[in-house]
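Figure S7 source data.
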Amino acid sequence: MDFITIPFLSVFVLPTLSSYSTRINLIFFYMTWTTLVLAHTALRVELFGTLAARLVFYLVPSLLFFLFDIAAPSTAVVFKGQGEAGLPTGNKRGKPTSKEVKVAGWALINFALGIAAQTATETFLIKIPMLKPAVHVTMSVPMPWDITKHLLWGFFVREHTPSTATSCTLECPIFALISTAHRAWHHSLRAPFPLTAHYDHPLAYLIGVFIPMYIPVMFLRFHMITFLVYTVLVSIEETSVFSGYYVIPSFLLRGIARRMEHHLSFGGKTYFGRWGFLDLITGTGGYADDDERGARSAGDGWDGRGSPKGRKK
Ligand SMILES: [Zn+2]
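Tokens for the predicted zinc ion complex:
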């Protein structure tokens, strides 16, 4: 059985937990969860949960970082992995122009588009009797290993879907328009800066960002709690990786940040995936390695470990 209910939890799991406060917290969490599920429709629980996770872990921090970069570029540049190129204006003395406003505006529009696409997909799946909703909202809660299993599959599928989609958009003439739009929009950026995780042509955004994120949820039918954890992790990744700051609290995220920087600096010819698995197999990470070796030998500011030379890690 994939999921457990509270009697199972109270009989088999809680007695094994040594801390009394942990048991109380778990019971309190389960009661809150049950009340939430009984009081609202599944669609409402999914959408409000998604919005809350996205706002707290992506939108609000990314907006604050973006405003900080604009308001105090001289201070922000100290923390930028790519120096002044990592600022929205590209220069610590530059004033924000309509281009930066356009980037931020479209990033916000795409963010809303992703939520709208999720709502439309889930409404369609709920309305058609033969189909099942993408997200499983029930009173039962998943076991930790079910959450872990789905998260691993989720990130694996998300990693490889954009790679396939990108290869296809580059190879198939039918997708030439999308490929051109992606290059004209996303690749107009010098380097990642806050909010740019969601900056692209809307169609390219849906194919390259939204679909890879939601496809594993649909096919594996994530439990709502798993989906929340997944959304929080994806939001943290997008916020930190695209902030452009070298102070990122994980070596995994620092690696993704460098791959995204290279994807932009090499005009989209390298690092189609974030975690680098498929690029390792297909050899599409070579440009970055060459660059790193060159940078290390030339001493142009990168120490080859994901941090600019001379800066604290
Ligand atoms: Zn690209």
